[in-house]
Structure formats: structure tokens, C-alpha cells
Amino acid sequence: ICVPTGENNELTVYASSQDPSGTQRFVSSFTGVPMHKIDVKVKRVGGGFGGKESKPFAVIAPTALAALKLGRSVSCSLKRTDEFLMLGNRTPMLCRYKLGFTSKGKLLCVETNIYADCGYKLSNNDLMLGMMGINIGNCYNIPNSKIVTHVCKTNWPGNGAMRGISMIGGTWFVDNWMHDISLTCNLPQEEIKALNFNKIGDVLNYTGRVLEEHNYSQCWDKCLSVSKYYERQKDVVDFNSMNKYVKRGIYILVKSYGVSIPQPAIFLAQSSCLVCIYTDGSVSINHHGIEMGQGLHTKMIQLVSDTLQVDIARIRVTDTATDKVPNSSVTGGSFGTDLAGEALLHACIILKDRLKPFKDANLDAGWDSWVGAAYMARVCLSATGYYPNPLDHGREVDHLTAGAACCEVEVDCHTGEFRLISTDIVMDVGHSLNPAIDIGQIEGAFIQGLGLHTSEEIWVSKSGTKLTKSLFDYKIPTVKDMPRVFNVHLLKDGLVEKSGFLSARGVGEPPLMLSSCVFFAIKEAISAYRGNRDVFRLDSPASCERIKLACEGKFSPNLKEPENNVFNI
């Protein structure tokens, strides 16, 4: 919604965007109105996941121009089908690779080419592929590697940022490498993974950073224990021996996510805020971060309450606004809490120091009395906070978030349908600021990734038109797809790096990567049906059609999948 004030081309924009300042810059450039006359406000966003970083600009800019020309409020909201057709998706990728490894499964070298389907424009795919090259090793040691990335221009809408941006594809490729090594060497996949873990003192792939500490092993060991992996593995073998067309598969994996901002965008590693104390003792805070359902505002209220010793009910987070916090950074990359939290902590410490003389003079008076006394003494009761993250000191990654997952699935090899029997997750989030929120983030990310890896298939015509343009043909997970047993455990006895805010780790995106465990459990079930341990290809998402075809097409020998999901229409 764009509302002109009717004076000097001033404009207020109420946007559904993860980047208010970016919206402000784009509207200014599009309309020719200076930025100081454009106020952008965001109350909250109903799910962003990267899709609302820059893509809303295409809707906001013409709406703003219409409001200025007509001199009246103008709103614009797209239908879901129009959004599907106009805007891109997570960038599809293809990986071709060669592996060198010992007979015991130790990975020695990798040569890989990664191709990204960017659509008709580059968007932020260059940054995405740069981050992928840095983090592709995941938690595994790759002594020698050659990784070449390619950006591909095609005739469909521009693809770009989505939750997990580059890491979800990069780590999925590495998991395929480990799975292929396991099949080729005819060794248990859990042994292959444990053999190739990074160790303290190893140099991380392409970053030059020496690994000082990690919690891969702790997450891995606890997941093996809480999931009773080895006992259930025997049960799966027994079940498969007694059932010819319905097979089960169980898989366990561990992931490590480098919470980072790539060097070309290092300027985004900064944050500012405004904290105001009113004479009645209530507090309002305004920071750069966008609430997208990830609990950012809740955590910031907790922080201010704890620092100033004020009841949570007396604290309010106002709209993220460019007239209060200018030049803000985009919210994303699991960096929102780190940046906003440090800035707010800085502002609260300033206010706490200003109130200290009045508190020391009358310890029993209480918060309201100290605030009133400070006001009467003409002490400023508002403060700005600013925090530049020191990522430019030679480290590409601020801190690592590790997690492990174990999944068991049951596949009907007649139809390609599957059901998720159980999921156990162990996540290292450091010293959690709010365990309830973090567990909710882990559960939500995993289910979102479940759709990514099993059902959310995109079909495109040769003319570049998307055929999956609504929820009738684009299948997201439903209640029936949920695991029958879903356990989430937070690692409590792991090492805690000091780089995360208050020793907490980013939790928005890392759990998404664990969802590929379902995909590989399906591959294990298919291997059981095929009756051998040969390497075979299964693309993601593992839809019913692809699962059926991977089962050697015994009941449909003439059925072939369209190449690259393209129909001749």
C-alpha cells in the first residue's frame, strides 16, 4: 500500500518486504523522488524465506508511481497464480562430479561442475554460487578439490534466494557423494561419514579458516543414541526380508551450516536500532530486523527486558521503519538475531548507564521512579545502537551450526508412494535464547525441506511458462506427510563458540538441510527393492514418479521421464 501525503512528493509505503531500505532505494530510483521523502514501514511479513528480499520491488515500484501520479492511496496484491507465473523459485542446480577415494571410503579428491538455472536474469545467483563454493565441503574433509560453478540463462522467470540459499544444494551434493562411496565400497554409510568428518585443526574448504572447534561428533553420537539407529536398522532389514513390494529405509546424516555473509556483500553485516523509554516506564524498540514468524521480535523483547530489568508486558516492538532506522540491512541468512541483538544490547547498555545514578540514589524506588527522576533531571531517555559485525577480519564464516537427523521411511514400490515413519533430530543451537522458538524453527524448517525433497516438483513448458502455477499442481507437505514420530533434541553439552550472539547460534536455515535425510532414506528403500547395492541416480524431489522409475520400472518398462522437467507445449 502506497500513501502519498499530498505534499512535496512525500510517500509512505507499507510493504511486505524483508528489505525496507532496499525497497526505499528502489522506489526512489524508479520514481525519481529522493529517499528522504519516502518512508517504508513493515509490521511483519507472512513468511519470507528470501523470496521477499528483492522480488516485491516489481510490485511496489509501479504502485508507488501510481500513488504519486494520482495523488491518492494505491494498493496492489497479486493472485497466487500470478505470483507463480511472474516470480521465480529456488534456483535449480545440476552437479556433475568425479570422486577419488580409497577402498575403505576415505575421500581424497573431488572434481565437480555445478550448473545453476538462473532464469532470464542473474539476480543474486552469483553470490549464491560463491557461498556454495565456500561451504560445499559441509562437515567433511576434502583434501583436494576443483569446484567450478556456472550460471545459466534460460527463458523462464528469474530464480534466486530461498531459505538455505546455496547451502541446501551444496550439502545435498556432498551427501550424494558420501552415499555413492558407501554403495561403491559396500560399506555402511554411517562408517563412511564418520571416517570423513573434519577434525580440529583441519583447514575448511576454500575459506582458509582452521577449524578450532566443532560439535559434529556430539550431534552425530547423540542422534545415533536417541534414535536407536542400530536397533532399528536390524528391524528394517527384517521387515524388508518379509515384504516383497513394500520396503523400508533408514538413514542418518549430519550437517554443518556456516552462518555468513559473503565478502562481496560484507557491507550488509551492520545493524542499528532505536530504543525509547517513556515517562510512564513503558519502552518501545525499533530495530532493522523483519519479523517473519521466526520469533525475532520475541527474542529482542526478551533481551531488552533482561538488560533493563523491565517487565516484558511493558515493551513494544514498533514497525520496522526507514525513518527510524535508516540504511538497514536485509533480514536473512540466519543473521537477524545476531545483528539486531548486538545493536539493541548496545543501546540498552547506554540507557542503563544513564539511569544508574538514579537507581543508586534510591535502590528501592523502582523502575518508574528512576525513569521519572531521570526525565526531571533532563536526561535523554532514548538511545540509538549500532553494531558492525567484524566479518572482514579474514573469516568468511561467522560461526557454525551443526545438526544430525535420522529418518525411517516406508516405500510402496508399486506406486512410488512413501510415508515417513519417524524422524529424530539433534541440533546444536548453542545457548538458546528461547528453546520453544528454536524447536519450532527446527520442526518448521524440516517440514519445509520435506516438501523440497519429495513433492514440490516444478514443470516448465519449452516456451518458459511454468505449468505448476497453483497449489493444485504444486504439492506442498500436508498433515498426512508429517512423520508419525517426530523428536527434536537440543544439544546441551557441546562446545559453544563465542562468535554467536550471547553464545547462541543461527537456527533459521540450518535445520532445513537435515530434511535431505528423508530423500536418502527413500534411496535406501529403493536399493532394498532393487536387490543390489549399485549406484543409481535419483533426482530431487523424489516424487512418486521418480521413485517408481528408480525401482527399475518393472511394472512400466516403457515409461520415461521428460528430460529436465520440460514439456513440449
Question: Can you offer a commentary on this structure?
Answer:
Helices cover 34% and strands 21% of the residues. The chain has helices at residues 20-31, 57-70, 80-86, 125-135, 167-185, 189-196, 216-226, 229-242, 296-308, 336-361, 367-376, 435-454, 510-513, 516-530, 544-550; strands spanning 2-4, 11-14, 38-42, 93-101, 107-119, 144-153, 246-259, 270-277, 283-287, 315-317, 320-321, 382-388, 399-412, 418-427, 460-461, 485-490, 566-567. The protein is globular and about 80 Å long. It has 15 helices and 17 strands. The strands form 5 sheets. A 4-stranded mixed β-sheet has the order 1-2-3-11, covered by helices on one side. The protein has a 4-stranded mixed β-sheet with strand order 7-13-14-16, with helices on both faces. A 4-stranded mixed β-sheet has the order 10-9-8-12. The relative contact order is 0.12.
Layout of secondary structure:
Blueprint: E1 2-4, E2 11-14, H1 20-31, E3 38-42, H2 57-70, H3 80-86, E4 93-101, E5 107-119, H4 125-135, E6 144-153, H5 167-185, H6 189-196, H7 216-226, H8 229-242, E7 246-259, E8 270-277, E9 283-287, H9 296-308, E10 315-317, E11 320-321, H10 336-361, H11 367-376, E12 382-388, E13 399-412, E14 418-427, H12 435-454, E15 460-461, E16 485-490, H13 510-513, H14 516-530, H15 544-550, E17 566-567
